[in-house]
């Protein structure tokens, strides 16, 4: 539990929370209720799970009225940097267990508790408000009225929304005015709000919200939001509840068997305040039991990344803006699912991804809109093979599943041996794996700004060779024909990758496909040759030399740097607008890999450095009215934002552990 200390500390108020829905959508925000990112919202829905994300309900303006006084329960930041209303004297406590919960001090006698959680059974966001002890102030409770104004947009989650005449404020309500539906634009899902209060239609605009995290990144950062009306709740009658959901047809399996669909417009009129109250009680009970069964806080946080894709499962690369990426999925599932005993989900992921195999490659990523995947990764397919090895070692798979996965593994190796996209092919002279063409990033160091590939690594990158040799040895377990290729590549690795001046490993050889050239940059990639994979490539003194070298130059209390500080390209801090930070990208300082103990050569996983996606200049200056991708033109929205493709970097809150994120 977080106790809000006084004097007020605005940086503590901007710590972030996250609630995932298991389909790629989520609710998120800050401790102080300020929205600091365009991605902060109460109802952010994946219309094509886990992609096609849309922000529907950005937040609420909430307050309590009592005896002519107004007690705010939400705080907003407006351009240029005006925070109103002030919660610094009201918010006294915040906790994330079992879900985000706030305690507000209304006055010396009364405390109000507010809660938010997302149901993984139904993809609904639940908001709940109640007095801490209604029995201690029965007379005064009668005078307490909670008011809640939903703030809506109906936009792509990368975009920002602005006041426009096309916004549809029309509301369809239930007979008792407790449940309401809106559809801001014709091509966005219908938003449903089921409450135990009463709705009053009062359309208005809230203008010039300021998102400081976007401003820091040099992006557009102001937004206007529509509010169609206000809900009123009598706190004397007990807790106030609101259920937010969207009419999205699910094409993927729910994370639990008890999936329920939101009410249709035709059913809405029959809903009542009693239904909403009972439903919140049911959803809270189901969700609390589900979370308790997950075990530790870390396990609950990790569960946020496991989501549905089609009829299978997948793992998100990070919040708030990444969907699923092949490399990240196969690395993460070894710990999130296989080592944790969630083997049915691990199998579902491997089978789902195996169906996307093309020319011996698995996708690097799927676009937010559209079904054509991108295959620009040399190592994603190899990480798949490692994950298959770990999964099959549990003996959980049926004979049919085992055969299907083994066939996928051999299809990858055959494609890589023959040659596939982007110059990926086993070298005829030494059996190591060539990879790379100009203008395309293929390894985990995949930053790209416009046409500039920051760390091309064309040639034979060291960790790709470790993965390649491991993949060959894994396939040889059931098909000995791959053993000779593995032995040949391993011998070449020993002969060509050891730097005689340090006894550590080169980061890349045959750079730009020029035979005999080497890259001596000290990076953490060489650690995979000695740990973290099923079959280490080095032994004894050779392993010790790599570990000592990495520890001496890259180890920090939190993980490994991506470049040695002694390198002229090293920069210890990366951040800010693209125009100012482009020159800093080659240093890529960050927590490259989470190493539990490199002294024991145990590499727990791989994390990307804290880099932020940058937009192209065209996107930054796109005039209002320009449509985004294949979505219909919506001249009212303006400033629609696309993430650069391929991706330009890893977000600071991606991965399992982030200083400012608490996920469940």
Automatic annotation (TrEMBL):
Stored Pfam families: GDE_C, GDE_N
Biased composition (Polar residues): 611-620
Stored Gene3D superfamilies: 1.50.10.10
One GO biological process term: glycogen catabolic process
Superkingdom assignment: Bacteria
Annotated spans, Disordered: 602-654
SUPFAM superfamilies in alphabetical order: Six-hairpin glycosidases
GO molecular function, one term: amylo-alpha-1,6-glucosidase activity
InterPro entries with a match to the protein in the record: 6-hairpin_glycosidase_sf, 6hp_glycosidase-like_sf, AGL/Gdb1, GDE_C, Glycogen_debranch_N
Domain Glycogen debranching enzyme C-terminal residue range list: 301-580
Ranges of residues in domain Glycogen debranching enzyme bacterial and archaeal type N-terminal: 16-241
Protein name, per record: Putative glycogen debranching enzyme
Biased composition (Basic residues): 639-650
């Amino acid at each position: 539990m977080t106790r809000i200390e006084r004097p007020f500390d605005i940086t503590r108020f901007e710590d972030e929370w996250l609630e995932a829905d298991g389909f790629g959508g989520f609710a998120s925000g800050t401790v102080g209720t300020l929205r600091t990112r365009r991605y902060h919202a109460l109802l952010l829905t994946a219309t094509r799970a886990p992609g096609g994300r849309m922000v529907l309900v950005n937040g609420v303006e909430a307050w309590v009225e009592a005896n002519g006084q107004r007690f705010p329960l939400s705080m907003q930041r407006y351009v240029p940097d005006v925070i109103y209303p002030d919660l610094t004297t009201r918010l006294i406590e915040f906790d994330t267990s079992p879900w985000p919960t706030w305690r507000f001090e209304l006055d010396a006698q009364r405390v109000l508790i507010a809660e938010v959680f997302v149901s993984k059974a139904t993809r609904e966001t639940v908001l709940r408000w109640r007095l801490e002890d209604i029995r201690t102030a029965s007379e005064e409770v009668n005078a307490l009225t909670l008011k809640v104004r939903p703030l809506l947009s109906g936009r792509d989650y990368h975009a920002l929304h602005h006041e426009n005449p096309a916004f549809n404020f029309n509301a369809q309500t239930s007979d008792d005015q407790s449940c309401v539906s809106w559809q801001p634009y014709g091509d966005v899902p219908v938003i449903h709000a089921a409450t135990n209060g009463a709705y009053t239609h009062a359309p208005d605009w809230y203008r010039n919200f300021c998102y400081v995290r976007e401003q820091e990144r040099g992006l557009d950062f102001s937004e206007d939001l529509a509010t169609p009306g206000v809900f009123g709740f009598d706190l004397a009658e007990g807790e106030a509840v609101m259920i937010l959901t969207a009419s999205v047809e699910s094409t993927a399996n729910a994370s639990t068997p008890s999936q329920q669909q939101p009410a249709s417009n035709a059913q809405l009129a029959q809903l009542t305040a009693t239904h909403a109250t009972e439903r919140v009680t049911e959803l809270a009970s189901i969700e609390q039991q589900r979370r308790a069964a997950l075990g530790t806080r870390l396990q609950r946080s990790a569960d946020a990344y496991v989501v549905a894709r089609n009829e299978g499962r997948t793992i998100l690369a990070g919040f708030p803006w990444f969907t699923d990426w092949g490399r990240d999925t196969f690395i993460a599932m070894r710990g999130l699912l296989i080592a944790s005993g969630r083997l049915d989900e691990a199998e579902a992921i491997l089978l789902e991804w195996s169906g996307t195999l093309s020319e011996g490659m698995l996708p690097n990523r799927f676009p937010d809109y559209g079904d054509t995947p991108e295959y620009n990764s040399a190592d994603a397919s190899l990480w798949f093979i490692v994950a298959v090895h770990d999964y099959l070692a549990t003996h959980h798979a049926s004979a049919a599943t085992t055969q299907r996965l083994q066939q996928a593994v051999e299809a990858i190796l055959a494609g890589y041996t023959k040659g596939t996209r982007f110059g990926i092919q086993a070298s005829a002279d030494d059996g190591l794996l060539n990879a790379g063409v100009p203008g395309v990033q293929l390894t985990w160091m995949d930053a790209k700004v416009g046409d500039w590939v920051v760390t091309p690594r064309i040639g034979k990158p060291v960790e790709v060779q470790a993965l390649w040799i491991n993949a060959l040895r894994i396939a040889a377990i059931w098909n000995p024909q791959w053993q000779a290729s593995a032995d040949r590549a391993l011998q070449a690795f020993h002969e060509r990758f050891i730097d005689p001046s340090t006894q550590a490993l080169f980061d890349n050889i045959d750079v730009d496909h020029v035979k005999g050239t080497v890259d001596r940059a000290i990076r953490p990639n060489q650690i995979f040759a000695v740990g973290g994979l099923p079959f280490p490539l080095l032994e004894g003194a050779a392993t010790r030399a790599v570990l000592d070298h990495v520890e001496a130059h890259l180890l920090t209390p939190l993980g490994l740097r991506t470049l040695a500080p002694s390198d002229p390209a090293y920069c210890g801090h990366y951040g800010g607008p693209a125009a100012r930070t482009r020159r800093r990208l080659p240093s890529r300082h960050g927590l490259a890999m989470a190493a539990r103990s490199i002294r024991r050569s145990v590499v727990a996983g791989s994390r990307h450095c804290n880099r932020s996606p940058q937009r192209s200049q065209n996107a930054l200056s796109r005039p209002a009215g320009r449509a985004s991708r294949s979505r219909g033109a919506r001249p009212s929205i303006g400033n629609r934002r696309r993430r650069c493709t391929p991706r330009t970097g890893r977000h600071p809150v991606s991965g399992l552990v982030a200083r400012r994120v608490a996920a469940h």
